[in-house]
Specification:
Length: 458
């Protein structure tokens, strides 16, 4: 049966392929769920079974954006603990987060996913690690929310087993035993993980962080993930306080600790990695360990500036992450393109730190590398999955910027006219096509109020 084709023409195109190929005016032809043709000028003549033609005049086509770090549940606690560093922020919010349940997490996931999708994200990721006793199937409702939205999803099954009584930050009733966490992670992999080409759902094994997880759980989770063939994710080197904690507790810095527990390798990616010395970066580059760079969250919590240019020079795979919306209230990834570029230029390399095209690569192909899916997504190339975005750049916000990639990255947040996942529209004309945005907003507001009442003892 002939493929059903969608033809997009007359748009600028940034393919983000290995050569950074761009076209001032070109075409993309989608057949069913894959890209068939990308090139300059008009689409090939005589194409059969074309069900839709889209005039992309005034637009830039890019690969769909890929989010590599998030905490959906935090959608319900935005705007709190506004002037805290990471540890104080966690101590303030953990007692609230420990009251979450299925309806709350479903509403929070839908809100988080809606903001991601509206801003051009076609592959989402979430790191969920708070599983209060009796809260229900929290990972399951996140997976259901992603399916409802129609976006590709990596669900990182997180865990914590180091509560307050063991020297950790979370309340004891919000953590699991190491055994229970490993059993639940394996069940999630067996039930949900799909390793096939074009998969809409993959699972990662993801203990939370060195200061909320025992060494036993870190080691056993790495072994479990490798036995099951899934990727590994955690937080790493986010703050100077974390580095001090690792030296006091383990007698070594975070990177050496991760190496000692099996947490360096091509199947691993870590969030933040702000406080990395030359030796740390070299170790990540040598082992192919990836990084989820979260510039807005790092700024919001005063964590510092990650050495992203140095990481890229060392061959470290780097993608972008929103992080939880309690430390990045916008919940958007497309604004992280701009923030990654600007924040990097506050570092020692200044104006030569990152370019607009490097920022776009972080948000697309870099994210695909970090999630282990660079052969499927992250660039506009024939044979890859049809995950793409049309950004509207002919409005007042971008009208005087001749370079479309610069307009997207340096300019105001660009409206999304079309976002496709597997060749199917998820956003059209700036609105989600698969869900009711207003209903999502109402449910999130109601569940946030409910959580606040419960946390206050009401």
């Amino acid at each position: 049966m002939a493929a059903k084709r969608t033809v997009i023409e007359n748009c600028a195109i940034a393919t983000v392929d290995a050569q950074d190929t761009e076209y001032a005016s070109g075409h993309v032809v989608v057949g069913d769920n894959v890209i068939e043709f990308v090139g300059p000028g008009a689409a090939p003549a005589g194409l059969e079974n074309v069900i839709r033609r889209i005039d992309g005049t005034g637009h830039l086509a890019t690969p769909g954006l890929i989010n590599t770090h998030h905490h959906f549940y935090q959608w319900l606690t935005r705007g709190l603990a506004q002037d805290c560093n990471l540890f104080n922020w966690l101590v303030t919010l953990y007692p609230v987060w420990a009251r979450i349940d299925e309806p709350m997490v479903h509403a929070a996931a839908r809100g988080s996913l809606a903001m991601l999708a509206r801003g051009g994200v076609t592959t989402a990721m979430d790191h969920h690690y708070v599983f209060p006793r009796g809260a229900g199937d929290l990972l399951g409702v996140e997976i259901r929310a992603a399916r409802e939205m129609g976006v590709r999803f990596t669900a990182a099954r997180g865990s914590m087993d180091r509560g307050e009584s063991a020297g950790g930050l979370p309340p004891d009733f919000a953590v699991e035993t190491a055994e229970a966490a490993l059993i639940a992670t394996e069940e999630a992999i067996d039930t949900h993980h799909d390793a096939s080409f074009g998969s809409m759902l993959q699972i990662a094994a993801a203990p939370c962080s060195p200061f909320s997880v025992s060494t036993e759980l870190m080691r056993d989770a790495a072994a479990l993930g490798r036995r099951k063939g899934v990727r590994l994710h955690t937080h790493g080197s986010e703050t100077v306080e974390e580095e001090k904690f690792c030296h006091e507790l383990f007698g070594m810095g975070p990177t050496d600790y991760f190496a000692s527990t099996g947490w360096l390798g091509e199947d691993v990616w870590m969030a933040h990695c702000v406080h990395m010395n030359d030796s740390d970066i070299a170790a990540f580059g040598r082992t192919g360990t990836g990084v989820a760079h979260c510039p807005s969250s790092n700024a919001r919590l005063g964590a510092g500036i990650a050495r992203v240019p140095d990481m890229l020079d060392a061959g470290v795979p780097v993608g972008l992450g929103v992080d939880g919306t309690a430390s990045n209230e916008s919940g958007e990834l497309h604004t992280e393109l701009r923030n990654a570029l600007l924040v990097s230029r506050l570092g020692p390399r200044r104006e030569h730190a990152l370019s607009a095209r490097q920022a776009l690569r972080l948000g697309s192909y870099g994210g695909a590398q970090v999630l282990g899916r660079a052969g499927e997504i992250g660039s506009l190339e024939a044979g890859k999955l049809a995950d793409l975005v049309l950004w509207k750049l002919d409005g007042i916000g971008h009208s005087s910027i001749a370079d479309p990639v610069a307009a997207l990255v340096f300019g105001a947040a660009a409206p999304v006219t079309l976002s496709m996942v597997n060749g199917e529209p998820v956003v059209e004309g700036g609105r989600l096509t698969t869900v009711d945005e207003d209903a999502i907003a109402r449910a999130a507001r109601e569940q946030a109020q409910r959580l606040a009442r419960i946390a206050d003892g009401g």
